Amino acid sequence: MFGLTGATKYKYIPNYSDMRGGYDKLSGVVRSLGENPENGTAYVFMSKNQKLVKIIRYDKGRCLYYSQKFKGGFSFVRLRFNVDKPVYVLEWKYLVSLMGTPVIKEIPVRELECLEPAA
């Protein structure tokens, strides 16, 4: 079981948005930033259009991979930071908010039927 809990340390990688890879590719990105993907920290990645979030974590010999995607007019909340860094520590409460709060990108409006006045 993946077990996203408050006991896990989370780090967000903001400037990587190629979501075609799995655990191995994303752990390579983590290594390229000077981090160790096998230290028990969960690393969070978000696609450029904010519709897909991937999380990787190494735990007791297991490579864990979690993916959540929104369809239609929904997306994840965009994370904003005051300074530009390659890796940010992400608190548990913000991860829960990110994963559980969809943002509506558009509201589909149906054309209303034109009602003719009664004669």
Protein traits:
2 helices, globular, 119 residues, alpha+beta, five-stranded mixed β-sheet
Name the average pLDDT. 83
Distance between the termini: 67 Å
Q: Judging from the principal axes of the Cα atoms, what is the shape?
A: globular
Please count the beta strands (DSSP E, at least 2 residues each).
7
Strand content: 25-35%
Quick one: biggest sheet?
Answer: 5 strands, mixed
Overall domain count: 1
Radius of gyration: 19 Å
Structural class: alpha+beta
* Parts with pLDDT < 50 across at least 5 consecutive residues: none
Helical run tally: 2
In helices, the fraction of residues equals: 10-25%
Widest sheet: strand ordering: 4-3-2-1-6
List the secondary-structure elements in sequence, H or E.
EHEEEEEHE
In short:
With about 120 residues, the chain is of the alpha+beta class.
Structural write-up:
The termini are far apart. The protein has helices at 23-32, 92-100; strands spanning 10-13, 42-46, 52-59, 62-69, 74-75, 88-90, 103-104. With 119 residues, it is an alpha+beta fold. The longest helix has 10 residues, at 23-32.
Set down the secondary structure blueprint.
Layout: E1 10-13, H1 23-32, E2 42-46, E3 52-59, E4 62-69, E5 74-75, E6 88-90, H2 92-100, E7 103-104
Parallel strand pairs: 1-2
Antiparallel strand pairs: 1-6, 2-3, 3-4, 5-7
